[in-house]
Design a protein that fits this description.
- The chain has two helices and 37 strands.
- With about 475 residues, it is mainly β.
- The strands form eight sheets. Strands 14, 15, 17, 18, 19, 22, 23, 25 and 26 form a nine-stranded antiparallel β-sheet that branches. A six-stranded antiparallel β-sheet has the order 16-13-12-20-21-24.
- The chain is elongated and about 85 Å long.
Length: about 475
């Protein structure tokens, strides 16, 4: 937001760009209204004349619009702008820099609040709640949401002749698909044609509860699991992979081993859990046959887990005399994978990504080599069903693009004569990316015409060179 505020203070020009009014000094709220509107434009009534940094419009009802305000937080109109009302319950009373609406559920919006972090509403802005777990920087400028993300928090528990699989909810998922593999599994996917993945048919109750008991298994065999979500009729990529080795309960042991061992997989993270063992005072956790820690609790987080690398875990119980259980617990394993649902652009720490509820959040800044401490002014997303989304980040050093869901970024600036990018807008139908800068608007063909086209973006100026453009919106029906 710092970049946007600086651009506002440099001039005294008010500009409408697709219903966005940019305020300037002196404070327009204290000035007489002498605005001359161009033909075809109308003022929105009962709306404060502060600065506005973003709009979100309900695709099913264009009369419902949300405006991100420098004065109050968020305004909402349900009558096409004739009247506006504050929609700030739960917000921290700070300016809002960015709004992102869930394309499949317009009642779900995410707000970027500089100095306050990320907030979400799931009821059309009747109430907001923070989503800041894992953020090291709460000066948040931008937010983007991928509706086609795979489920997070996939968990498997090993039992006697069965494994129990659970997973987190994906917003707007109408169905989930669960796949199991028993050989040739690691390094393959359900759609790659390799491995031996088989779909388990889920009934309605299992889909609602997001859990499945895979029964009739052979103790001692390893069973691998991934989950897909179905949103808007499209399947997500595979979730991160987990596995478990079912095992019969202990009999006649000096010290019982922990049972119902679980592993929950996250982004570069695996959490191992278990039930208490008789007379145990602590537990020792093993990874790849080597002890990686002890704990008196019933969970352990392996923060050294890495995306794409399988790790096998088991647990032993320890009693007061120091004896360990005669046998290890059942084995579980995890192959962590990147999350790709909610992206957040911050003032100094770059871009973070997490699940839709902020879970398993981590920084994704590889390739972002900005000169101002990774200050991100804007994020826009082109979500792809069945694959990682493409994102564009607006910075003071121009535009960066990622085509792998944030894992790697590259500069995207050919012929962009003004690198201070304050706003971005994307036309998915035409594949056109627009950039608002202190020197007006630029555009480029963001979608490559040929799969092997290695050329960078080729930006063109659209005029308005004397205006500082802090927000752009594209009409989804008439871009």
């Amino acid at each position: 937001m710092e970049g946007r505020i600086n651009s506002i203070n440099k001039g005294c020009i008010s500009l409408f760009i697709v219903l966005i009014l940019l305020g300037c000094e002196p404070d327009p709220r204290n000035q007489p209204d002498t605005t001359l509107l161009q033909p075809g434009w109308n003022k929105s009534g009962a709306l404060s004349r502060g600065s506005f940094f973003a709009l979100a419009t309900d695709p099913a009802d264009p009369n419902i619009v949300y405006a991100a305000s420098s004065l109050l937080g968020v305004y909402k109109t349900t009558d096409g702008g004739a009247t506006w009302a504050a929609a700030i319950s739960g917000l921290p009373g700070r300016p809002v820099g960015s709004l992102q609406m869930d394309r499949f559920n317009p009642s779900i919006l995410y707000a970027a609040v500089p100095g306050g972090g990320v907030y979400v509403t799931k009821d059309g802005a009747q109430g907001w709640a923070p989503l800041n777990q894992g953020l090291t920087q709460t000066s948040v400028h931008a937010v983007a949401f991928n509706p086609f993300a795979p489920p997070t928090g996939v968990q498997v528990a090993a039992g006697n002749g069965l494994n129990m699989v659970k997973w987190n909810a994906v917003p707007n998922a109408t169905e989930y698909k669960l796949y199991v593999c028993v050989a040739g599994c690691v390094g393959t996917s359900t759609s790659s044609g390799s491995g031996n993945w088989q779909e388990r048919i889920l009934i309605a109750d299992q889909i609602t509860k997001r859990q499945y008991s895979d029964e009739g298994l052979i103790n001692g065999n390893t069973y691998y699991y991934v989950v897909k979500s179905i949103v808007g009729g499209a399947a997500s990529p595979d979730s991160a992979m987990v596995s478990a080795v079912p095992k019969a309960p202990p009999t006649g042991l000096t010290v019982e081993y922990p049972q119902a061992v679980t592993v929950t997989v996250g982004n570069n993270q695996a959490v191992i859990g278990w039930n208490s063992a008789k007379d145990a005072v602590s537990y020792e956790i093993y990874k790849g046959g080597i002890s990686i820690g002890q704990t008196a609790s019933l969970t352990f987080t392996d923060i050294s887990a890495q995306n794409g690398i399988r790790a096998v875990y088991y647990v032993k119980a320890k009693i007061s005399n120091g004896s360990l259980s005669d046998q290890p617990s059942a084995e579980v394993s995890a192959v962590p994978g990147p999350t790709s649902a909610l992206y957040v652009g911050t003032a100094e720490d770059g871009v973070f990504v997490s699940g839709p509820d902020g879970e398993y959040r981590s920084a994704v800044n590889t390739g972002l080599t900005t000169s101002d401490g990774l200050d991100i002014d804007e994020l826009v997303i082109d979500p792809v069903a069945g694959g990682p989304p493409t994102l564009y980040a607006g910075t003071r050093d121009g535009v960066y693009r990622t085509k792998d869901g944030g894992q790697t970024w590259t500069a995207y600036n050919t012929n962009l004569s003004q690198n201070g990018v304050l706003s971005l807008a994307y036309d998915p139908a035409g594949g056109i990316l627009y950039a608002g800068t202190p020197a007006g608007i630029f555009k480029t063909a963001a979608k490559e015409l040929f799969p092997l086209n290695l050329l960078d973006a080729n930006w063109q100026a659209l005029g308005l060179g004397s205006f500082s453009v802090t927000a752009i919106a594209v009409d989804p029906l008439a871009p």
